[in-house]
Design brief:
Blueprint (H helix, E strand, L loop, with lengths): L16 E11 L4 E22 L3 E7 L7 E3 L8 E19 L7 E4 L11 E4 L20 E10 L3 E4 L2 E7 L5 E12 L6 E4 L2 E6 L2 E5 L1 H10 L3 H12 L8 E4 L8 E2 L4 E4 L14 H10 L3 E3 L5 H20 L1 H22 L17 H4 L3 H17 L1 H15 L2 E3 L1 H11 L3 H5 L1 H6 L15 E3 L5 E3 L27 E2 L35 E2 L4 H6 L2
Parallel strand pairs: 1-8, 14-15, 15-17, 18-19
Antiparallel strand pairs: 1-2, 2-5, 3-5, 4-5, 6-7, 7-12, 8-11, 9-12, 10-11, 13-14, 16-17, 20-21, 22-23
Helix pairs in contact: 2-3, 2-4, 3-4, 4-5, 4-7, 5-7, 7-8
The structure holds zinc ion.
């Protein structure tokens, strides 16, 4: 018997869940999900099955034939929640847990109508990363055990449910005044990627495989802002291979969504602060899109290997931006990331074990350990591998890595073994073990720079296109800049952005006025592209 993840009670000798069937009713008045979850096991099983739960009210557990199954709920741990032990009769292939979530479920955010753009209907969204899925569904809540899922979600008439899954139909609910939305997720995902949002929602198609969802008040502005997503998907496919999740849909959430974005597969969750009205913040979607390859397709086995997910994704995001905007724009991303990394290392202390890529999180809440380190130190390690192996060889390695591990979740050690097999000698040349297991930044970590980089008055890097660089400075001193209403610094227009010369200033998304709140209302925005500060990059999961 051994635990396979310090944040889960999933046990190596117990059966594994391979598929989950959710049948849930959304009760806004009680702030609860009620219903059942059927866990389909990888084969006929017997004996104890330990599931993760947090604050769930467990009503019954039955087998596929309806026979009652004994269960017990262990003591509550403030980080991990409770162990739900189910005693499987011999030959059990599936168990159904009837339950309700608690009004304070960590994964679920219940918004009153006043907290939405429309102010008429309530709203619900989930955020299961890092270890909150267990407060929404009883399951083996570890990335190691991937599941496919089907769901039937019943909501009050007039509201729409979306999930990190493909839509599979809509029907009247069993109770009057309700509607049931059906979903099917055929690709196996780590449990932290199960996601649900319910509200007054409308969708707009952006391409044959992409749609944006938002409240009616902002849906047209959202569709305008993200109209170019197909081009970005195609660029990413050129770098990393075919998009493997069928659809790339997005939902723009109400302003209280606590992150910039979350890479829920088939349904990226996004903050409405991206609705700048001039498409200037669309690039941040590159990060969530990149997760489709370097995070969701190949996932970290546990939160201790989080860098494998985020480090590769930050690196991949900058490769996408380099393809779209050119190398200097990517260098700006690296420079902003460097400042975020410096701040995280300073916050923890350079000797802190939390500055290792491979962390030891036993007894530590992964949300408390969250920082720029797995993102930016991880991305620097990936870039170092790329430089050492050479881009062409590294790109071949990356394709092979994703082919080999697609739809699985791996550890740092499994990655290292694969690296040594495919690119012999490289891990020694770069000092991989020092990067993984030692605190702080190794001596061969290199800061990016180019002639277009300068520092803003607030200390954040910005990039000046060649035509706008003062001849006397060429990036050596801070150029004049315009204060930015939302985040304190700006980037001058990119070379391919025709708006730099004032073109298209009257162009704008329908309904954009007032859509994004005061942050989106700056004047003269068409002259300058804003880039997020590092605390916002932390904010993008
Ligand atoms: Zn991410």
């Amino acid at each position: 018997m051994a635990l396979i993840d310090p944040h889960s009670c999933a046990d190596s000798v117990q059966p594994r869940t391979r598929h989950v069937v959710l049948n849930l009713t959304v009760d806004f008045a009680a702030k609860r999900l009620e219903g059942d979850a059927t866990l389909v096991l990888s084969g006929p099983s017997a004996g104890p099955l330990d599931l993760d739960a947090k604050g769930l009210e467990i009503r019954s557990v039955t087998t596929g034939t309806g026979a009652a199954v004994p269960f017990s709920l262990g003591p509550s741990d403030p980080i991990l929640g409770e162990r739900l032990r189910v005693e499987l009769p011999p030959g059990t292939e599936a168990v159904t847990v009837r339950y309700a979530t608690s009004p304070g479920a960590a994964a679920l955010q219940w918004l009153s109508p006043e907290q939405t753009a429309g102010r008429k209907q309530p709203f619900l969204f989930s955020q299961c990363q890092a270890i909150h899925a267990r407060s929404m569904v009883p399951l083996q809540d570890t990335a190691r055990i991937r599941v496919t899922y089907d769901a039937a979600v019943t909501v009050p008439d007039g509201l729409v449910a979306v999930m990190s899954a493909g839509p599979d139909g809509v029907r009247p609910g069993a109770a009057p005044g309700t509607t049931t939305f059906l979903f099917r997720m055929p690709q196996p995902i780590p449990t932290y990627l199960i996601a649900l949002a319910v509200g007054s929602l409308e969708g707009r198609d952006l391409s044959p495989r992409s749609r944006v969802w938002a409240e009616p008040e902002v849906v047209d502005a959202s569709a305008w802002e993200f109209a170019g997503i197909e081009e970005m998907i195609v660029k990413a496919e050129g770098l990393f291979g075919p998009y493997d999740w069928d659809r790339y849909d997005m939902i723009v959430l109400p302003p209280s969504f606590p992150y910039g974005g979350m890479e829920n597969p088939r349904m990226t969750f996004l903050t409405p602060t991206l609705l700048a009205g001039d498409r200037s913040l669309v690039d941040v979607v590159a990060h969530e899109l990149a997760h489709s390859w370097t995070g969701n397709l190949v996932t970290n086995a546990t939160n201790e290997d989080f860098w494998l997910n985020e480090g590769f994704t930050v690196w991949a995001e900058r490769r996408i931006l380099e393809t779209i905007h050119g190398p200097e724009a990517a260098v700006l991303g690296w420079a902003i990331g460097q400042k975020a990394l410096d701040e995280s290392v300073e916050r923890f202390g350079a000797g802190s074990p939390l500055t290792r890529l491979k962390t030891d999180l036993k007894g530590i809440d992964p949300d408390e350990a969250f920082s720029s380190v797995p993102y930016e130190k991880g991305a620097r390690f990936v870039a170092l591998l790329e430089r050492t192996a050479g881009r062409a060889a590294f790109d071949r390695f990356l394709r092979s890595y994703m082919d080999t591990f697609r739809f699985t979740s791996i550890s740092t050690e499994e990655f290292l073994a694969f690296l040594d097999e495919k690119l012999p000698g490289v891990s020694t040349m770069v000092g991989a073990k020092e990067w993984f297991y030692e605190a702080g930044m190794p001596a061969n970590a290199r800061a990016a720079s180019n002639a277009g980089l300068a520092l803003s008055r607030t200390g954040w890097p910005l990039w000046i296109p060649p035509a706008r660089r003062p001849a006397s400075s060429r990036g050596a001193s801070a150029p004049a800049e315009v204060p930015c209403p939302s985040n304190g610094f700006r980037l001058a227009a990119s070379p391919r952005d025709g708006r730099a010369s004032g073109e298209g200033q009257n162009e704008g998304p329908p309904g954009a006025q007032g859509a994004g709140g005061p942050e989106a209302q700056g004047s003269g925005r068409a002259q300058n592209r804003m880039i997020r500060p590092a605390e916002v990059s932390n904010w993008f999961r």
